[in-house]
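One chain shown below:
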Amino acid sequence: MTGTTTTAARTTLVHTTVESPLGELLLVGRASDTAPGGTALVSLSMPGQKGGAVVQGGWVRDDTAFTAIARQLDAYFAGALTDFAIEYAEGAGTDFQRKVWHALDSVPYGTTTTYGQLAAGLGLSRAAVRALGTAIGRNPLLVVRPCHRVIGADGSLTGYAGGLDRKRRLLDLESA
């Protein structure tokens, strides 16, 4: 993934929804002078997602702000895109969570890793694997920041905020 992070000054958030094979996705963003289409993604969530974003008062619906992102999502779900080029706005989260979220970006399309392997790659102790799992569960950018590629040490599907059925569908799409 080639996502980059911005700290755009604009505080008004824009949002839209796009249809996908996983259901309607809610995209939330912030204006950015450097992002394709002018919008840096703050959140991508889906219906029924544990801890997913919900449209708030003060947010502005702007379907055109997400045209470039929606095109990439369509291409991904069609099997024609394996690497997103989306700018992310630095959102909420602790330093530890952001460190874990950035590590997810290094898990290649079509592969999986385990929670333990990801923790080891970050230099975390075995005792920190649970905290790593909690941070992954709070990933605000489902699909584009590939937390679905993290599985249990025994190969089982565990812990996906969008639901295990959707995790399986994403991994099947990627043939992982």
User: Anything to note?
Assistant: The chain has a mean pLDDT of 90.
